[in-house]
Amino acid sequence: MNFIHGNGPRKDVCANCGVKMDLITKEEAANLYSNDVANARLNLVSRRWAPFFWIIVLWNAWFFFIKDVQIWNWVVFGALLIITLILPVLFLISTATYTAKMEKITPEFKRPDGH
Ligand SMILES: [Zn+2]
Questions:
Q1: 49 and 83 belong to one structural domain
Q2: What is the 19 CA–ligand 1 centroid distance (Å)?
Q3: Per-residue CA distances from 35 to 44, 62, 103, 108 (Å)
Q4: What's the CA-to-centroid distance between 31 and ligand 1, angstroms?
Q5: 114 domain residue, yes or no
Q6: How far apart are the CA of 23 and the centre of ligand 1, in A?
Q7: What predicted TM-score, i.e. pTM, was given to this entire model?
């Protein structure tokens, strides 16, 4: 949880409520409001899920265009099948890398004492 720093009314207030209550500026709550952070996160998320989008496109291409092409239909079918089976495994394996990258683009935040 992203708490803001300070005593009195600022104590135990999260960054989101801090901005709403005018205790901090949006610049100070970079984790929530920075466009750079948002873009970097969107970039990471889309790169993580893009292969699933492409595999669906390729299966459609196979079904509509390649299915009736003799010999090649089975070659492409085999390749697609292997990719489809490997994809979830790679997805699971890359979870740690993905989490680390996401952690890396999250702005540094020092947890106040007592949290
Ligand atoms: Zn809050």
A1: yes
A2: 9
A3: 14, 39, 16, 16
A4: 14
A5: no
A6: 12
A7: 0.67
Whole-number Å distance, alpha carbon 99 to ligand 1 midpoint, is 24
Residues in the chain: 115
Segment 34-41 shows an average pLDDT of 87
CA of 17 to the centre of ligand 1 (A): 4
pLDDT of res. 63: 94
Q: Alpha helix (H) ranges present in the chain?
A: 15-20, 30-33, 35-61, 72-93, 95-105
How many Å lie between the centroid of ligand 1 and the Cα of residue 69? 60
Q: Is the predicted pLDDT of residue 12 greater than 90, yes or no? A: no
Shared domain check, 44 and 19 = no
State the DSSP H helix or E strand holding residue 63, giving kind and residue range, or none if neither: none
Residue 62 near residue 80, CB atoms below 8 Å: yes
Which of the four pLDDT bands, split at 50, 70 and 90, describes residue 37?
confident
